[in-house]
Specification:
Order of helices and strands of chain A: EEEEEEEEHEH
GO cellular component, one term (chain B): proteasome complex
Protein name (chain B): Proteasome assembly chaperone 3
Structural class of chain B: alpha+beta
Oligomer: heterodimer
Helix content of chain A: 10-25%
Distance between the termini of chain A: 41 Å
Radius of gyration of chain B: 15 Å
Structural class of chain A: alpha+beta
Radius of gyration of chain A: 16 Å
Pfam family, one (chain B): PAC3
Largest sheet of chain A: 8 strands, mixed
CATH topology of chain B: Ribosomal Protein S5, domain 2
Number of helices of chain B: 2
Number of helices of chain A: 2
CATH class of chain B: Alpha Beta
Strand content of chain B: 35-45%
Largest interface: A-B, 42 and 39 residues
InterPro entries (chain B): Proteasome_assmbl_chp_3, Psm_Assembly_Chaperone
Largest sheet of chain B: 6 strands, mixed
Number of domains of chain B: 1
Organism (chain B): Theobroma cacao (Cacao)
Chain lengths: 153, 126
């Protein structure tokens, strides 16, 4: 027996970023998909965040829609450490692996990250990460362990 | 700068259905060089598989399917990946597939449910 419901709601959220990009959010069932693009130093960064009840998938595209390398990262008990695994393409020194790690540190979420950004572009990496973390916090997905400035409860 | 916002470069479809009594959320996306299909009943991506069409000279296409993260002892997951890559390759383009399956049950009915749900909603994959 299959019953299908595909009523998605689309809403434009605030467009207050410097690049003036509006993000599109689309939620159905337990899954919310948010997409937005930003122009940063002549590079177009595309972001897709798929929010599942217990996990986040984030894709970052740098000037293209290539899937890139795939990483999984999560907080690891008993200490407050973070584990990262490269699961497709990539290596431990590629850009995506650092982003995945810091995403977990800053948000406390269980994440899967796909990223096609070049290596050796620390400014670009830092910008992309910052935009992504800001958006995750703005959407209320983050679960930081300790309260930080500007986080809503 | 006014004018139209360029479309987001990754077409996707997000939908939900019930398979054997389990509420299943599906997301289907097309990147430049991969398809991503996510089917979850458990709130996480679950096991992640990779499937691709092999380049070969023979007339019959062959496919390579493997688990890249998660359960490696559940053959039904590989079967779902294989069915999907075969059907997608024959009806849409032959990009490799990243498939995530977070399932509560691994029965044949669930396989059929997921494969048919994805194929019915594959327009964004073309």
């Amino acid at each position: 027996m299959m019953m299908m419901s595909s009523s998605g709601k689309q809403s434009e959220s605030e467009a207050a970023s410097k690049a003036g990009a509006a993000s599109v959010e689309d939620g159905v069932g337990g899954v919310q998909v948010t997409t937005f693009s930003e122009l940063v130093d002549d590079v177009t960064l595309h972001f897709q965040i798929i929010h599942l009840p217990k996990q986040i998938f984030a894709w970052i595209g740098c000037n293209s829609a290539k899937f890139g390398d795939l990483y999984a990262a999560a907080p690891t008990r008993p200490k407050n450490s973070v584990s990262v695994a490269s699961i497709l393409g990539g290596a431990s020194d590629n850009t995506g692996s650092g982003i995945a790690r810091r995403l977990v540190i800053k948000t406390g979420l269980n994440v899967i990250v796909a990223c096609n950004m070049p290596k050796n572009s620390p400014m670009l990496e830092a910008n992309a990460e910052k935009k992504l973390v800001e958006k995750l916090i703005a959407l209320g997905y983050s679960r930081p362990k300790s309260p930080g400035p500007g986080l809503s409860s | 700068m006014g004018g139209l916002e360029p479309r987001f470069p990754v077409p996707y479809k997000n939908f939900s259905l019930e398979i054997k009594g389990n509420s299943t959320d599906l997301v289907v996306c097309r990147y430049d060089d991969h398809f991503l299909v996510m089917a979850t009943q458990i709130g996480t991506m679950g096991t992640i598989l990779h499937a691709r069409k092999e380049e070969g000279v023979s007339i019959q296409p062959t496919f390579h399917v493997s688990v890249i993260f998660g359960k490696r002892d559940e053959p039904m997951l590989l079967a779902i990946a294989r069915q999907l890559i075969e059907q997608i390759s024959s009806s849409a383009s032959s990009l490799p597939l990243v498939l995530s399956l977070g399932l509560k049950d691994h029965s044949a009915e669930t396989l059929k449910g997921i494969v048919s749900a994805v194929m019915e909603n594959r327009l964004c994959l073309q």
